[in-house]
Amino acid sequence: MGRRLALCCLALAAALCAGCASVTHGTSHMLRIDTVTEAGEQVDGAECTLTNDQGTTLAKSGAPTPVRRSSQDLDVACMAQGQPKASGRLVSRANAGLAGNILLGGAIGAVIDHNTGAAYTYPSWVRLVFGQSGVFDRGNEQEGVAMMAPGATVLQSAAGTANGTAAGTGNPPPDAAGPPDAAGPLVPGALARGDTFDYRITDRAGKQSSNVVLRAERIEDNQVSFNNGARVEASNGTVVRIATMLTGELDQITPPGGWMPGGKLPTGSWKMKHRSLVPSSGMSYDLDAFVEGEQKLVVQGRELRTVRVALRGWAENRNPAMTARARYEGTAWLSPELRRVVRFEAKSRAAANSSARFDIDETIELVRFGRD
User: Fold this and answer.
1) What are 286-315's pLDDT values in tens digits?
2) Measured between alpha carbons, how far apart are the two ends of the chain, in Å?
3) pLDDT value of residue 254
4) Coil vs helix vs strand at 213
5) Which residues contact 368 (CB under 8 A, 6 or more apart)?
6) Do 254 and 266 contact (CB within 8 A), yes or no?
7) What is the rounded distance in angstroms from the CA atom of residue 64 to the CA atom of residue 25?
8) In angstroms, rounded to a whole number, what is the distance separating the alpha carbons of residues 364 and 211?
9) Do 261 and 233 touch, CB atoms closer than 8 A?
10) CB-based contacts of 323, cutoff 8 Å, min separation 6
11) Which H/E stretch holds residue 290?
């Protein structure tokens, strides 16, 4: 009898705790977004759009607003008259409620909290800079301090703190860090042996990140060979060959000739219909591409002018037995200075139960460039 009573009590406790995070944390939390100019002047009242898989929320910068929790990252875009767009991605992180739910409420509660988003939290206070884009991870959040994206730059006269640090970062001003590389900036059309491009690849679905370094190892006959021939480019930036996939989906979707063949920036709109250049890939693409405008990105403290290209259409994976097809959305930021993509995002999912299925949810971003 006592054993039966104990089992009943445990079952009741599990039922009561199912969805513990949903109860203790709720399905939304307060988020404050500040917006500043590159001169460091704060601009309140900017129109901000917050988007995740739970929907879209409208907010004003400078004031707290409730945002729906989700296991997916939150995209934020803010606009103000006379200013370029300020944008950012807020990384979703599991909160303590999920761990407690697994211990007390078991798998049922954990599933509930995952599906409702209650088990996840975004940063609570971020500062976006007009004309710049960045990623905000609450793992680096300091209580009572607005977060700035790594590499974001503003003039210290208005946005610095009393001790001369960059506002909200706790780090020295960008200028104090010195130039991006002791060897000086890379010069377009003059790549040399030892030039490197460091990319961070983030699988947003699996919440995993990895780094890859593209290193120019051999230059001959006006061609640059990276990573023992895994990638070959002409000296003007045209992609000659991608023998091995290094930068994830960015390599798979790269069109014949690359994004800037001959070093020329694209304009207007065009069709992208091609098979992947990666020999081992069965992916093909049927996309509409169009230039959305220019945007400044900061890489390792250095400001780069980029052209933002939107991609919309279909992706298909084909093998000898099966074919899977799904809608595709992506964005590429092209740097005319470096003649390459410096940031790329893509999302596509073919859920068919087959060997051809695929699930793409990636961000690829340049985090460093220089000369070894």
Assistant:
1) 999 999 988 889 888 888 999 999 999 999
2) 74
3) 97
4) strand
5) 180, 196, 197, 198, 299, 300
6) no
7) 17
8) 9
9) no
10) 316, 317, 356
11) strand 283-299
User: What pTM does this model have?
Assistant: 0.54
Q: Under a CB-based contact definition with an 8 Å cutoff, are residues 155 and 40 in contact?
A: yes
Residue ranges in the chain assigned as alpha helix (H): 2-17, 20-24, 96-104, 106-116, 156-159, 249-253
Residues 319-330 as b/e (b if ≥16 CB within 10 A, e otherwise) read eeeeebbbebeb
DSSP type of residue 264? P
pLDDT tens figures, 75-125: 999 999 999 999 999 988 886 544 444 444 444 444 444 444 467 889 988
3-state secondary structure 99-168: HHHHHHCHHHHHHHHHHHCCCEECCCEEEEECCCEEEEEHHHCCCCCCEECCCCCCCHHHHCCCCCCCCC
Question: Which DSSP helix (H) or strand (E) runs through 90?
Answer: strand 86-91
Percent of the chain clearing pLDDT 70 (strictly above) = 74
Helix and strand tally (H, E) in the chain?
6, 22
Q: Tokens 């940063």: give the residue.
A: 123
217 and 225 in contact (C-beta within 8 Å)? yes
Strands of the sheet with 125-129, listed across from one edge: 64-68, 28-36, 125-129, 147-148
Q: Which tokens hold the place of 266?
A: 């694209």
Supply φ then ψ for residue 175, to 5 degrees.
Answer: -65, -25
Pick from 164, 74, 175, 82: nearest CA to 126 = 74
Least Cα distance to 312 among 343, 348, 277 occurs for 348
Domains of the chain: 17-173 (no CATH), 195-371 (2.40.360)
Token output for 241: 């060959």
- For residues 339 and 144, give the distance between their C-alpha atoms in angstroms, rounded to a whole number: 40
Residue from 151, 113, 104 nearest 298 by CA: 151
pLDDT for the residue 111: 43
